[in-house]
Amino acid sequence: MKREGAFICIEGLDGCGKTTQAKLLARKLHKGYNAVYTAEPSRGRIGTFIRKSCLYGEKRLSSVAEALLFAADRLEHVENEVLPALRQGRLVISDRYVYSSLAYQGAAGLSLDWIEKINEHALRADFAVFIDVDPKMVMHRLKPTRSVMENLETQQKVREIYLKFVERGDLVRIDGNKSQSEVAAKLFAVVLKFLKASR
Q1: For residue 69, is it within any domain?
Q2: What is the pLDDT of residues 67-88, one digit of tens each?
Q3: What angle do CA 62, 141, 152 make, to 5 degrees?
Q4: Is residue 1 part of a domain?
Q5: What would the pLDDT profile of 57-67 be if each residue is shown by its tens digit?
Q6: What is the distance between the alpha carbons of residues 112 and 90, in angstroms, rounded to a whole number?
């Protein structure tokens, strides 16, 4: 898996603003680093199935089935989108990656060791950020939606798992409770620091 660019992942609870922040970051870094935005689930075959049947379908699959689908989509996403961009020397900004599976499927009761095992062939991110927002705040933002994944207890469990990876040093935490411009400035600063240090 030879590559030249850098792979950065933005993680967080549903409704934390990470999609907006990931897109803003990609735009800010496009000129100097030829940055490109991507997301999971991907727009590929498996990712499209996940979006239609798992995230927004009337009847959800089992947690194990969903975890396996996300892992399969991740491999396809890396092969078809991430690696080609990295080989061109581009900076890839991904809206969600492996830590989302660990946090969400882990919150559903699956073993984190098992989730890591089924994702062992996934490309390792060079840098990953967790935009940390109070679960009660995201519940307020998500109030109009109907997804069963969006209850407060689940969001709290998801956040706890994310914070474990922050403590382990795998994720850099950013306070997402601040204004959009403040979060964007902090995210840009930590990513730019990483990019300069890795040169």
Answers
A1: yes
A2: 999 999 999 999 999 999 999 9
A3: 45
A4: no
A5: 556 788 999 99
A6: 31
Distances (CA, A) of 89 to 135, 179, 188: 37, 32, 19
Half-sphere exposure of 32 (CA within 13 A, CB side): 8
As for how many domains the chain has, the answer is: 1
Residue 21 lies in a domain: yes
CA nearest neighbour of 133 among 69, 186, 176? 176
- Cβ 5 vs Cβ 91: under 8 Å: yes
DSSP H helices in 44-127: 45-49, 63-77, 83-87, 98-107, 112-118
**pLDDT tens digit string along 142-178?**
765 545 455 888 899 999 999 999 999 999 999 999 9
Residue 74 domain-assigned? yes
Calpha distance 29→23 (Å, rounded): 10
SS3 6: strand
Domain that holds residue 29: 6-197
Q: What is the CATH number of the domain that holds 75?
A: 3.40.50.300
Mean of pLDDT over the chain: 91
User: How many whole angstroms from its chain centre is CA 131?
Assistant: 10
